[in-house]
Design goal:
- The protein is α/β, with parallel strands linked by helices.
- It has a seven-stranded mixed beta sheet, with helices on both faces.
- α3 runs antiparallel to α9, α4 packs across α9 and α10 packs across α11.
- The structure holds 4'-deoxy-4'-aminopyridoxal-5'-phosphate (PMP).
Amino acid sequence: DLAGWQRGLRAQFPMIAANPDVAYLDSAATSQKPQAVLDAVITYLTTGNANAARGTYPWANRTTARIEQARDRLRRFLGDPAPAESTVQFVSGATEGLRAVARDWLLPQLRDGDEILVPFADHNANSMPWVEAATMAGISVRAIPYDAAHDYDHRRLTVSPRTRMIAATHVHHVYGSDMNVHRLRAIAPGVPICLDAAQSFGHIPISVAELDVDFVVFSGHKAMALPGTGAIWARNRRGPAYRPAGWIGSPNTSGIISLAAAMDWLDAAGLDRIARWNQALGVRLTEGLSKMPAYEVLGCQRSLTADSMVQQRHGIVTFRHHSIGSNDLGFILASDGLLVRADDHCQGAQGEKTASVRVSLHVYNTPEEVDRLLEALSRLDH
Ligand code: PMP
């Protein structure tokens, strides 16, 4: 009983429970937090708080151990097939993580004549640091081409022996589509791929073995954990030298503990079911919008069958009204307690040129909330 399962999960989110008249529809910006994650943080800070350090007293040693356990927790969460060979570094989020891979891992290796491949219609956080690193090294950047469905067009992508990195995104933060990274891997065997998993981590199961990528970078705050959390997973001991496996600086102990608790919570809830729930909500919204002529859904061809929409939408649906500006639409919806994001969504140089309204759903959202949104939108369908 999927609905009963969902009701049980929804009840665990204090922000949601305290605001029954509000529909929070902006989880791609940041997720709400389940009580179990908040409890883990409070328990740690009230019974275990100490800086991580080596060997001096038990509180500190326990913190160190918790952080090592969190690294292993992430390896398991990602289905790491060779956990002894991978590195996990905790960072403040995807932006810092992607920049660290670009500046601290890639840049020192770049030589004249190298090139990197960068997705310019994805999030700026996954293009700017790569361009900066390439500029500093004086090498060229090629854009990863897209097809009409905003998927990477692997048929028009070429790699060379001098291609040093493919920066790719797992799930697109505007279109909600799975970018089919395995197709990039198929035409680029051996080329390092860095995966921006900011919108997939905690939303769909991630298997690094299946994806065959070299780096996975994400933000914890979009996946039930506290703000200021995230990680870089890297295979084959490839992690950036900055903040190496030992300790440089004080780690975000309570944040890392929240991330481990979030992974426990997500696994217990069931990522497969979470993914199906979010997709079904996204499809419900897309189908409702497709019946209203005033709205254009971005990245969605109306000819798509229901099946491929299910496949394409991971709980993120972005649209525009043909005459009401997206910012105005965002304010109108907010006055109805429908909290969406309305702007240009930090897309890179090849992204959308005008603002749009993004609705992003997570497991605490309900079909009734989607219908309430559709109802509000239908009043403006003229
Ligand atoms: N990549 C993608 C795909 C994102 O959606 C975001 C967050 N909007 C980021 C990177 C950056 O994440 P953060 O702001 O948490 O660093």
